Amino acid sequence: MRPVLSLINPKAARCTARCKTFATFPVSMDRKDDINLTWNNARPYTEIPGPRSLPVIGNVLKFIPYIGEYGDLSLSDQLDTMHRQFGNIVKLEGIGNRRDVVLLFDADLCEKMYRIEGQWPLRIAMETLTQYRKERSETYKGHFGLAVSQGEDWHKFRSRVNQHMMQPRTIKPHVDQVNYVADDFLVKINKLRDKTTMELPETFNNELYKWALESMCVIALEHRMGCLESNLSPHSEPQQMIDDVHTMFDLFYKLEVLPSLWKVYRTPNLKKLFSTLDNINRIIIRHVNAASERLRNSSVEDKQNLSMLQRLLSIDEQTAYVMVMDMLLAGIDTTSNMAGILLYHMATNPEVQEKLRDEICTVLPEKSSPVTFKALTETTYLKACLKESLRIMPIAIGSLRTMQNDVVIGGCQIPKGVDVLACHSTLSRDERYFPNPEMFIPERWLRDNASGLSAKTAHPFAYMPFGFGPRMCIGRRFAELEIETLAMKVIRNFKLEWDRGPLQIKSRFINTINSPLQLKLIDV
User: What is the torsional sign of CA 280, 397, 482, 232?
Assistant: First the structure.
């Protein structure tokens, strides 16, 4: 990503140093200019700068490892490099059978993209996942979920589930469940850490995935999957689920981002993806059926505190099936990596960690005190730490929208059907919006901060870790519940240290931790 990830990735740093800086194309940064510009007097789409596309082969060679200009860079570093080379609006074309995409590296331009997205925002779906769900009609029955649906179908599905997923009270029935999972995870951490060095093992990244899956299962399925049991077999259902989700994201990257011929013929990677998704769905469907049966055989007295699954089943079982599938597919890698990155930032910023521990001790007076809904609402510094962690190392590179009409953004013509990407992972580390962007300063996010570092002075569209508008991440509240609960438990019980150099991040379909998270945990 930006300065920190350039340090993490030596190849990226070398490339940055040798990158030729192109004369950038002067684009309008004033929203009023776009309002006053008509299509005919805006700059033509063909004049938007970007990597030069060659006849027939386009830009494919530039992204081939070892030989291409961008081939050895992570996805985030590719974006950063193109920003430096071409400016705040960049056109990327000629990548195999991919559609053109316009990259936005200015918050005003990003805001314009969101403001014109319309009632039913359109973004290119994961085409392989769309194809899979269409072929598995006996499972999906025309309900393809939020990940792949578009237009009115997407709007109808989102409208059905939105109130059950996005309201603040939605998490309340699940706080105790998530707290119990965090307690069990702390017991496991104690067993895992080396009794001499106090370090966690190289396999701790996988343990975080188990925690994330177990937490999501108690929310989405009201069921303990057993992910945190000792000596979990590599062939066990929880480990198979974790491995399959890793494989799924890896294949999405190979099929959706890298050049691929899967649209021409059924490639081995496409077959592997479909087989992997079959395995995941088989597990999920069995547990949703079991949860549905349990709920049918139980009486619910408190209608105000229905669980998320109960609320979804009150719509219809098919909606519940598809929404739970989407939650489990999207909520393991993302949540575990966000939690791991937050713990890393706590370990590498001891003064911040101590300040956070002081806050946590006020709501958790004992090490064994449970995390409650009230405690979650009172830990403002913890929320600031999570925001700052996501600013520096976001999980998603940005938000994409497909233009539904001919539009003008940044003084440029962008035709209907072109994909536009708001590159928030670059903007959130841009000094124009966040002074000293490489520094971890949670105080930026505190309401009473009146300094020049306050995020209140930043452009509101520079930082968007969960997206914006109708297509905002629907699982945000549950992800924050899981991460904040775990962080409160860990910081209350341990002092975190780290002496293994900068954390390595792998930027592919999402950004993930790419080095062993061997934190040192010292009892406090």
Answer: positive
Q: Are 89 and 104 in contact (CB under 8 A)?
A: yes
Q: How far apart are CA 168 and CA 161, in angstroms?
A: 14
Q: Which residue has tokens 């985030």?
A: 76
- Percent of the chain topping pLDDT 70: 92
* C-alpha–C-alpha distance, residues 383 and 145, integer Å: 30
Q: How far apart are CA 31 and CA 33, in angstroms?
A: 5
> Do the beta carbons of residue 186 and residue 490 sit within 8 Å?
yes
Q: What CA–CA distance (Å, rounded) separates 78 from 253?
A: 15
C-alpha span between 242 and 223 (Å, rounded): 16
Has this prediction a pTM greater than 0.90? no
User: Which helix (H) or strand (E) is 36 found in, with range?
Assistant: helix 31-36
Q: What is the dihedral of CA 231, 234, 238, 244, to 10 degrees?
A: 150
Q: Which residues pair with 412 in a beta bridge?
A: 43, 409
How many Å apart are CA 57 and CA 82, to the nearest integer?
19
Report the relative pairing of strands 419-422 and 511-513 from DSSP bridges.
Answer: unpaired
CA distance 255 to 123: 17
Write out the E strands in 22-173. Answer: 89-92, 101-104
- Residue 479 CA: distances (Å) to CA of 126, 157, 215, 331, 474: 22, 21, 9, 7, 10
Residue 74 has pLDDT above 60, yes or no: yes
